[in-house]
Each structure stands twice: as structure tokens, then as C-alpha cells.
Design brief:
The complex is a heterodimer of chains A (358) and B (114).
Chain A lengths: L1 H35 L20 H10 L11 H16 L10 E4 L2 E4 L8 H11 L1 H10 L3 H31 L5 H7 L3 E2 L3 E2 L2 H4 L1 H14 L23 H26 L8 E2 L2 E3 L5 E3 L2 H29 L5 H29 L1
Antiparallel strand pairs in A: 1-2, 3-4, 5-6, 6-7
Chain B lengths: L1 H24 L6 H4 L20 H28 L1 H23 L7
The chains are: A mainly alpha (358), B mainly alpha (114).
Amino acid sequence: MIEILIVFIKIVCALVWFLLLTLYLTWLERKESAVIQDRIGANRASIFGIRILGLFQPFADAIKMIFKEDFVPAFSRKFLHTLAPFISFFFVAITISAIPFGDSIRIGERTISLQILDFNVGLLFILAMLSLGIYGIILSGWASNNRYTLIGGLRGTAQLISYEVALGLSLIGLIMVFPSLKLSAIVHYQGELIFGFLPKWGIFLQPLGFLVFLFAALAETKRAPFDLPEAESEIIGFFAEYGGLKWGLFMMTDFMEIIVVSTLLTTLFFGGWQVPWMAADGFHWPWGGEWLLSHWLVVVFQVAAFNIKVFFFCWLQILIRWTYPRFRYDQLMDMGWKLLIPLSLVNIVGTGIVMSIL
Amino acid sequence: MIELFLVFLVFGFLGAVLIFMNKFLGPTKTNPAKESPFECGSPYLQEGINPFPIKFYLVAFLFLLFDIEVVFFFPWALVFKEMGTTALVIMFAYMIVIVMGFIYAWKKGAFQWE
């Protein structure tokens, strides 16, 4: 019984973290774009006249969306029209349950790992769930029965399945270096040191794999410069016939994908919750000497390190989104098929040869 | 196992609540013009969707082929460290097949987007 309670508490904590971060990414996106474009950005939402840089803006948006009319166009396929945002939201949100937020905490006799689902196949689970999210796009495009949404839906599907291959291939090299599909095990492998001082993070062992994964993952979030399914200036996108919270779910999915991609980049290539030179009992500096910490301080350091890395990648993705213009369709598909897939094959061969020589 | 079940339950419940929130909390005032499809302001011209050319079939087919090949890579990558050079030779044989298929598709113009 207490096991179920613990799992439930972990799910609630992860969900609160995830939803709050999603809400505040919308705020961050507004503010960051405002800074880039020399504007002020959202700053009006206030509670009792207190408006700290518009920090309450996400809540105002959410409340507005909740009290919109439930709108289903007459010609749409009604059941699929309602199902599509659910699928889109559900399969992206669920991936967060396989991400390790920290190592494990000890309370009395009990050891609780800071990860909800510690699968043997955690990486495959995440890839599978991210691909299932494609159904949300194609269903919403098809069920709205409108040719702009259909174009958006088909474009989105073509883009996502093209980059899916590169996404899978870019991780093969990483799995060769850290032979496990269990995400907690991959993070544990990254706690070792190369040459006695450099942390053994994925980025140092797989720089090419990291680049391919970064681009493929950026394309999977389907935001500019890869925002062809949406393309607000030409076809509005696959969610043109949605309103209120159903549209909100698609928008939340976008931001959730940013977070999921950031957590994946952190977990696979930047050591997850590992702090450089920190073991379970404190820091062991490579130049000698150590700084021992209590168990709880170590846990705090680990979770804080994970969060800082994730925030950094969220910030980086928003920066990329507001810096580069959109690709043309053929440029996009060319990059997926003719650049990223050959590069990831080269990465696999290179990794294999280097590992056999060493 | 119970964890997986609980995760699906909680996230599914949350998704369902979010989907139906507008229905219970929002207003319901509708009229025919509001329910017609969005056509950039003009009245809609025809029901349904005309077929239009998109190289979607080919993309889907290529995706299936290459993604299956990616799936075969995963178990091989997991045992690579233990098997050593043998695995490398096997990988080269397999990689030649993939690269040949890839070059064939490329030469046949499967990656020509218009």
C-alpha cells in the first residue's frame, strides 16, 4: 500500500513540476522574444496591483482558455476531433515519467529513486511515446475536414517521421558507449571520469551524435525554424479548427516537447543529475582534496544540477526559435534525409572503429 | 507494473479533464456561421477535401524501411562492448546493405522534393 502511495506522490510532484515549467515557458518565450525584438513583453497581469514582470501572465492565459466555449465545427468528425488533442497531450506528457530527476533518497530504511518508471527499456519507451504523438497531429488535421489543416497535418507527419529515423540513429552511438537502455544506468555511467579530470558525459564521447540528436529533436518539437506543420503565416496549421483549452492542449504539447527534449539532452549527453566530481558522499576534486557533504545536501545538489541543465536547454531552444527563419519544405526534408541520416551512419561507424582500436 | 498502470491512469485522467473542461465551464452559444470551416473569411466553396498530390506515400514507405533498420541496430549496439571486433565486422556487413539501399533510393529520386 505504501509503495503505491509513494509512486502516487512521485507522479504528482513530477506533474506539478512539468505543468508549472510549461506555464512559465510561455512567459519565458514572451519575455525572451520581447528582449530580442526590443519590446517590453507581457507585463500587465497583476494580483492586487502587484505585477512582477508579468509573472502572473501564464495563469491569466490559463483561466481565459478554461472559460472559452467548447467549439466543434459542424463538418468535422466529432469524435476524432476531440480525441486528437488528448492523444497529442497524453503521449508527450507521459514521457516525463521515465526521466530520472535525481539519484535516490534514503528515508529511514527505505530507498526511493527519484524516477517514476525505472524501465529496462526507458529510452525505447520515450522514443515510442514521442512517435505515438504523431497520431495527434494527423488526426487533428484529418478530423477537422479542412484542407489547410490537412496540409498542415500531412506536412507535420512527413516531417516528424523523416526526423524520427535520424533521432533513432543518432542514439545508437551513445548506446554503444554506455551499453544500456535504462536511463538511470546511462546517467550512472556518466559519473565516471576520462583522463582523471573530465566528466564522462555523452557530449565528450559523442559530439557528432549530440549535434545530430539536437537538430532531429529540434525538428521533433515542430517549432521554428522547423515549424512547417504550423507555418502561421501561410496555413495556420493542423489546429486551425480548435479553440479554447483544446487548442491550449496543442500549445502545451509544444512547450512540453521542449521540456522533454531538454530533459533528454540533459540525461543522455550532459550527465543528467550528475554534478562534476561529486560522488554519493560529496566532492572529490581531481587536484586532490575532498569536500564531504551530508546525504540530503548531495540530493539537493543533484536535483539542482538537473534543473539548471534543463532550464539552460529550454532557454537555448527558445533562443533558436526566435533567431532563425523557417526552412523551405525541400530544405527541411533534404536536411533530414540527406544530411542527418548519413551523418548519424558515419557516427556509428566512427564510434565502432574508435572503440575497437582503444 | 503497478507504477506503469498508475502513470497511465493519472495522465489519462488529467488529459480527459482538460479536454472536457470547456464543455462544463464555457458558454454554449453557437450559430451556423461559427460552425463552418475556416476559409480565410470567404464562405466555404465545397464540402470535404479534394485529393491533392503530396509525396507522402513515398516518405512513409522510406520511413518504415529505415526505421526497421534502426530497430535492428539497438540490440547490436547493446552488446557491442562485449563482442568487440566480431561485432564490428557484422556491423560493416549490415551497414553496406543499408548504405546501398540508401544510395539506390537517392539515385532513383526518392529524395527529390518539389
